Amino acid sequence: MQSRRKFIQQAALATGALLTSNSLFAELQQDNAAGKLTILHTNDVHSRIEPFPMDGGRNQGLGGVAARSELIKKIRSQEKNVLLLDAGDIFQGTPYFNLYKGEPEMKAMAAMGYDAATMGNHDFDAGLENFATQLNHGKFPVLLCNYDMTGTPMEGKYEPYKIFKKGKLKIGITGVGIELNGLVPESLYGNSKYLDPVQNANTIAYKLKKEKGCDMVICLSHLGYKYKENKVSDIQLAKESEHIDLILGGHTHTFLDAPETYKNKLGSDVLINQVGWAGIMLGRLDFEFGKSSKKNLAKAHSVVVGKKTNE
């Protein structure tokens, strides 16, 4: 991991970086490929509807849904199988949220065609009834397997997982959220119960991989990349997982140079990626699948969003 300034400078100069791995994501011959998949992802956008103002600040001209939408449209015109995902903290951070409580954010994500998202702690900031109401504008599923929201306005409004079919591929996606107690006022999360994210993610991943026959299992995580203290993180989840292939993270606003690889309990590779905050970056991961469902991460891009993209 490097400083965000250096990261953005490098990403602006080169939007792609080749990443290969020697085990699970071994390189496959093109004529054996059963399918290709492009995963686009964001996290911690924090109500950044417009780009940062051109005021001389370090983020000037970056972010904004218009620039992100154009990038997504361009990629979809070039690639057949695309998934667009978000790892939470959609809300909070600009006057748009203060005034409209999340409606513009959800409508923007719906217009961009997000396939799925998970909840971050700031998505509770106007209460569960508000989030449930704003979901009517979102038109995409919220995936969570470690919150029990029975008896709250979110009951029946979220799913533990969802399977997406992209060409010949079956992609299973689940989501995990961070411990709310001490982070979010109890008045905002109400009767929501936090469940062990590692245990529940493993249970869902087993179902997706072994029972549902998914070619790939993705976990949208708002746990945070890593911590100095003893706190559940994406790295801990990766190491203690069994059937998760990719963790797309949020919460810690981490700019990763490229996806990082960890070994799970079975000795297989798990990738972790996170792309900072405020919609400054759009993560892109291009996978190739062989007939035996082996995966090769052919390319990993972190594309700068905004006026600096084409500099």
Please provide the count of β strands: 14
List the domain count as a whole number.
1
Please name the fourth-level CATH homologous superfamily.
Metallo-dependent phosphatases
Q: Strand share of the residues?
A: 15-25%
CATH topology: Purple Acid Phosphatase, chain A, domain 2
The helix fraction, in percent, is 10-25%
- Tell me the radius of gyration: 18 Å
- Tell me the structural class: alpha/beta
- Poorly predicted runs are 13-33
- CATH architecture identity: 4-Layer Sandwich
CATH class category: Alpha Beta
Major sheet details: 6 strands, mixed
How far from one another are the termini? 24 Å
Mean pLDDT: 89
Short structural description:
With 311 residues, this protein is of the alpha/beta class.
How would you describe this protein?
The chain has helices at residues 4-13, 65-78, 95-100, 103-112, 128-138, 186-189, 197-211, 234-240; strands spanning 16-17, 33-42, 82-86, 116-117, 147-148, 161-166, 169-176, 193-194, 216-221, 246-248, 260-263, 269-273, 281-290, 295-304. It has one domain (4-304): Purple Acid Phosphatase, chain A, domain 2. It has 311 residues and is an alpha/beta fold. It is globular, with a radius of gyration of 18 Å. The strands form 3 sheets. It has a 6-stranded mixed beta sheet with strand order 1-14-13-2-3-4. Strands 6-7-9-10-12-11 form a 6-stranded mixed beta sheet, with helices on one face. Mean pLDDT is 89; it is low at 13-33. Helix 2 (65-78) runs parallel beside helix 4 (103-112). The protein has 8 helices and 14 strands.
